Amino acid sequence: MVSNGRQMLGLILALAGFVGTILMCSLPAWRVSAFIGANLVTFQIYWEGLWMNCVVDSTGEMQCLPYDSPLALDQDLQAARAMVIIAIIAGISGIMLSFVGGKCTHFVPNEESKAKIAIAGGIMFIISGLLVLIPVCWITTSIIRDFYNPALVDAQRRELGSSLYIGWACAGLLFLGGSLLCSSCPPKDDSPYRVTYSQAKSVDSSKVYV
């Protein structure tokens, strides 16, 4: 019963991380305008994401335009887009394996095989979390490096967007959920040692000597 609850908790946490990964991928808030120096009073706010960039004017109106070509993106955004897409694919695989290997489902009759499938689903969630964490940390380092670059003007500096914070939370949920699913150990036999008994031999009464 405890193992069943741990598996359900791991699946719920991993699902929350997977949904957050999709949200992080779709939001154009990886980089936002930095309000410093001459850029403190500005009439436009720039948001940059994996698929589009947006401009918010002083009236609150937002205009978003998709990128003309993937080759026009920076190298870090191109790598982040590829890794996040692979992370989503790995998350889908983890969800399917976790449902098939769940203790509450009856797709696989053998309990030992179900536990192995659930462990495989947990491994896929951990891989998905790693693929989310790498581009988030990479772009965070790039933003911080450019922020303190004296060769850039204030209008070119960017700050951390909300998608990066969502990415850190999603990576943690995927790691935790995948670890709980990996703790679904296959059932072991109660008697690991097989005991064999030999048949008792009958003694002929005529051969018994006093």
TrEMBL record:
It is found in: Cell junction, Tight junction; Cell membrane. Signal peptide: none annotated. PROSITE patterns: CLAUDIN. Pfam families: PMP22_Claudin. Its main location: other. Belongs to the claudin family. This is Claudin.
